[in-house]
Amino acid sequence: MLGRAEALARFGWLAEVRWRDVAEQFPVRLPRGYLAGANVASDPRLLTALPADAELDFHPGDIPDPVGEQARSPLPWVVQKHRDRVLLLLTKRCHVYCRFCFRRDHEPGAGEDPSADEWAAMLDYAKHSGAEEVILSGGDPLAIPDARLFAAMDGLRPEIPIVRVHTRAPITFPSRITPRLVAGLRERAPVWLFVHVNHPSELTVEVDAALARLVDAGIPVLNQTVLLRGINNDVDTLVALSRALVARRVFPYYLHHPDAVPGNAHFRVSIAEGQALYTSLRGRVSGLALPTYVIDPPDGSGKHPVPLLSPG
Ligand code: SF4
Questions:
Q1: Residue 158 preceded by cis peptide, ω within 30
Q2: What is the pLDDT of residues 54-70, one digit of tens each?
Q3: Which domains does the chain have, with CATH numbers?
């Protein structure tokens, strides 16, 4: 990991940033591998990983719980918005704290992980929820050790047939995708892996190799992208990203409208801009390369497709 002093030396423009104030709101973590080769201030990896003063700005559109999880949380570390799916937050830790993330309720140290009792209670809840699918999320569920991840999966079976792992680790920390991890996921099939790539520059040689290890093992890999101002809010970037994912055998599943959490206003685009971009994207890629453009509203009803603009 890059420390603060090293990051300041490497990225001179950060000297003006109120780093400590920003990091108090949401931690900063900078893996060397993820930032290798990213040196100009406009690089999407730097823009989404480095702290910025804009995170401290108040915006009238901010919503503290932008996707309505609090009212749908029957117990700590569990969210259930749909009868057939349960979301388990295995940790609050991540390899990178993406500056646009909607889950920013993170205090380093105590409270980063479920207690033993909370862990047992969330698995027990999921097993008896009647759900068909459990989504292992966080934080990043691959920020915890293999043994703990596999124990969670094994604890859910046989009641829960489908396990989904929502992780950025193949992108932000590709060395985490070890042969041991891949073998363990494969043994526990059906396991579906959902990754999160926002820009083609994130698809480095190391990331390609990590994705290939997963796909070659027969693990289905799907991608979710967040539409972000200054990162991917142009159609050429979205087209290039979708095609690059398909070429790597990763299905471009969702294009998310950004969630309006306090601290990420500088990344947000309007619905109208998103609709226009998506209409252009739809005209330029095949059905295989076209994600569904979705929004997750604050009423907690879950993701919905954004209405499309009519042709012409
Ligand atoms: S890895 Fe995922 S959960 Fe963690 S900060 Fe990034 S987007 Fe948020």
A1: yes
A2: 999 999 999 999 999 99
A3: 62-305 (3.20.20.70)
